[in-house]
Amino acid sequence: MDPLSVLRDYTIRGDLDNVKAVGDDFHFGEDYRFPCNIDTAYRSKQGSLYTLECLVFFVKNAHLKHTEYMQQARVQKLQIVTYTDRKPLLDYLEGKINTTDAIELVAPAGPHVPPEKPIWDAGDHVEEYRPEDPSLGFFDNGNNSNKRIRIDGTEGGDIGGAETDQVAVTETGPLIDLVRAKERPLKDREALLECPNRNFQAVLSMATRRDEERRKSEDLQRKQQGRPMETPRKNHYGITEEKRFWKDHLGTDTDELGIDPTQSYIGQKGFAKPGLVSQRPQVQGTPRSSFGSGGGKGKPDGVPIILVPSAFQTRMNIYNAKDFLEDGVYVAPDVKAKQMPQKPECVTIQRKIGREKTPVAYQIRDKPSALAANDWDRVVALFVLGKEWQFKDFPFKDHVEIFNKIKGFYLRFEDDGLESVKAVKQWNVKIISISKHKRHQDKTAAMEFWDKLDSFLRSQRPNMAY
Predict the structure, then answer these.
(1) DSSP state of 66
(2) For residues 112 and 212, which has the higher predicted lDDT (pLDDT)?
(3) How confident is the model over 123-177, as pLDDT tens digits?
(4) Is residue 311 within 8 Å of 317, Cβ to Cβ?
(5) Structurally, how many domains does the chain consist of?
(6) In this structure, are 37 and 161 located in the same domain?
(7) Which domain holds residue 51?
(8) DSSP assignment of 78-143, as one string?
(9) Residues 403, 427: contact at Cβ < 8 Å?
(10) What is the pLDDT of residue 131?
């Protein structure tokens, strides 16, 4: 009998008081005796087998909270049942489930003292098991009685109809475990996906052949019409025929649009055809900047600008922005404010994170109302408070337009409440979390800021990408 099955039997019967440690052994009443440190058949999800003394201590203290159980187990210097194993193990020991994948097919062997009375007794003392007819799945119990043992370990009862609840066992465990030990899986989930004697090369060849036939047909038609043969050229979608590329992606030929894709019109005036110029009206009375109008525009004069809140009660303002963005170190705003004689109007930083060889200068400002129309062309990032009134001096109609042209960020502590980010989550803003005490993690947060800003500028403001 394996110790796990014995412990389960005593737990189901509510007989754990008779499981006592005597010296280096556990005595299960007068029936069994096992070494305390013997491995059981229950394997942890972490890979190790639980010992008997670990499981006995666990099941006797299952009423405790897991943290209290862990503390007491550490005091006893015992192996600890993990939280993920706690419920399935307890369900198995209490008989709520009959088996679990964590149990080995054959329990690990270990010394135990056989009881003075038979392991199993159904009224007739059983000395051995002899197969009567293996094809029927029954075993004769060897004493010419009318009782038979099913292959699953339960007794089939009298032939006349009487039933019992006894379980047939051997020295290594329940009989059903011996049967399962002989089982071998025919297929696993990977073998089921295999397709033996199947070759899809013919499908690939057919698709390639059809593509070649299509190309030859188009080339022949072009030759008959006297049109020059097109040579493949490289563009941002890879190597393809240029006119076919624009035909597929614009829905019409470039000749019909009057576009020569091999030429560049950057820097030339008056190249746009009538009707292709955007007719979007400008809002009267609002100073509009022209940034974000296209990648062909050159960089505006001056260094890029990062806006921060002017409020004092915020995680990021003009006092501590330099330490975080330049050196990757977070210092509380009130601490930095005490180190400065007066509040600066503008702070210039040298971006070295990700630009060690060629640092880039940025300006930190906190007064949007002091920015001129051409200054807004240089605004690339914005730290938000999470309040709509922060945008009252911005030359945009709403926060949707703001964050389409300026990358928004919100800096918070990891353990801040969710209320502070409820409004921010509705905006196109990147939330960056830092620890209150683990300052060695600040550099990672600063790198995340610069990486997100670089990605935004490359896609939305290529003329401002540094």
Answers:
(1) H
(2) 212
(3) 444 444 444 444 444 444 444 444 444 444 444 444 444 444 455 555 556 777 7
(4) yes
(5) 3
(6) no
(7) 3-93
(8) -PPPPHHHHHHHHHHHTTSSS--TTB-SSPPP---PPPSS-S-BSSSB----EEEEGGGTEEE-SS
(9) yes
(10) 44
